[in-house]
Amino acid sequence: MSAPIRIGVVGAGAVVVHGHVPSLQAIPGVQVTAICDTNLARAQEAATKFNIPHAFADYHDLIARDDIDAITVAVPNALHAPVAIAALNMGKHVLCEKPLATSVADGEAMVAAAEKAGKVLAINMSNRPRPEVVLLREMVQAGRFGTITYAYGRLLRRHGIPGYGSWFTRKELAGGGATMDIGVHMLDMVYWILGFPPVSAVRGEIQAVHGPHERGLGGWGADRVTGGVFDVDDLAAIHLRLANGGLVTIEVTWAIHARNEERIQFAGDRAGADYFPDLYGKDQPLRIFRVDDGVPVEIAPEVPKKEWAWAEGFRHFVDACRGTGQPVATGAEGLSILRLLDAAYRSAAAGSEIRFSSEAQNS
Ligand SMILES: NC(=O)c1ccc[n+]([C@@H]2O[C@H](COP(=O)([O-])OP(=O)(O)OC[C@H]3O[C@@H](n4cnc5c(N)ncnc54)[C@H](O)[C@@H]3O)[C@@H](O)[C@H]2O)c1
Q1: CATH code of residue 58
Q2: C-alpha 58 – ligand 1 centre gap (Å)
């Protein structure tokens, strides 16, 4: 039996109490030894609920402890970099929440700190382990669809703004709105399924339609205030032109006069796939389209069932800390996604596409 992995959790908000701590405590050989939140009462409440020995208000106190091998970071996005870098410099492995950071420079500094420390930097791209996403990746990577010429990901929330004036709606803390919060997930899913192909250009159309008028409030986040600052976006369309000529389009909203919707499509020169639970139903939400002997066919493959796929990234992270596995998503991959999101924002501001050289993207 290998030595226990002792983990400190930075942040005691919604994703920690619903996700991080239950996921970690379900892994054999893992001990959650400390939790930290600037709202100390919140950290103490979580410590009591989950039987965590130590609670702190300052993350420096947590990362200074010798009885912590690794941390998870679930604080406002702008704080991901300082917390992760401080922990890596103290020799801790880090699983950071998405998005990796709020600037490419911060993301680069995180990846460099992990390399220097020789420690794991993982990012919680929690949608990757979903069974339908894994199946699509396997099919795309096995060449079932041929060369992909078109990929599409759409995630519409009708009322999904996580609290006006909470950190989520403040650019200085969140780095952006729907684009940074859920655009990051949809872009990561589609781009991961494609295998992170080189991108030659990015175009972003980014708007704030409902947020500035305090419409479209949703039900997430620990600090929900009214009448606060909303200086981020709530709607984004991001287009990538791949170096091989393929097109990727991502559309996300935090608020829109439309039904909630999630759809992922891939079309290649041999076949196509459409994941669309609203159209095909939750039991068989995926369809494959191809032509067999000149006859168009539509197939509904069985998607394997998986229990709480969301938690899988934590198991892989622990394996990576033990040196027996790889993270579901690496910090370097999180940085690649951040570069694309950053380009989308710059494109939207400039009103023109941003050209990428493959070296700039992968360096
Ligand atoms: N992967 C996913 O599926 C997923 C889902 C939700 C949120 N997230 C990410 O998790 C992070 C946290 O989101 P959340 O929904 O839990 O937000 P939240 O607002 O519910 O919680 C954030 C917590 O961080 C605390 N905090 C602020 N500054 C701090 C500091 N310096 N040190 C310690 N604690 C501090 C706040 O007091 C709050 O309790 C964000 O980066 C978000 O994007 C990821």
Answers
A1: 3.40.50.720
A2: 15
Instruction: Look up the pTM and report it.
Output: 0.97
Residue 190: which of 147, 244, 248 has the closest Cα? 248
Residues 74, 145: one domain? Answer: no
What is the SS3 assignment for 341-357? HHHHHHHHHHCCCEECC
Please check whether residue 120 is in contact with residue 114, taking contact to mean a CB–CB distance below 8 angstroms. yes
Other C-beta atoms closer than 10 Å to the C-beta of 43 total 25
Which backbone phi and psi does 333 adopt, to 5 degrees? -70, -40
Mutate to test the pocket of ligand 1, among 18, 37, 102, 223 (most ligand atoms within 8 A of CB): 37
Among 103, 123, 143, the domain-final residue is 123
pLDDT band at 77 (very low <50, low <70, confident <90, very high): very high
Same domain, 158 and 295: yes
Is residue 262 over pLDDT 60?
A: yes
Task: With residue 317 as reference, give the H or E element that holds it.
Answer: helix 312-322
Sign of CA pseudo-dihedral 54, 59, 63, 66:
negative
As a whole-number percent, the residues of the chain with pLDDT over 70 amount to: 96
Nearest C-alpha to atom 43 of ligand 1 is from which residue? 98
The verdict on the CB of residue 250 being under 6 Å from ligand 1 is no
Domain that holds residue 10: 5-123
Could you tell me which of 159, 156, 337, 150 has the C-alpha nearest to residue 263?
156
- Closest by Cα among 180, 192, 202, 172 to 340: 202
Summarised one tens digit per residue, pLDDT across range 189-248 is 999 999 999 999 999 999 999 999 988 888 666 666 666 889 999 999 999 999 999 999
Residues 166 and 119 in one domain: no
* Residue 340 CB less than 6 A away from ligand 1: no
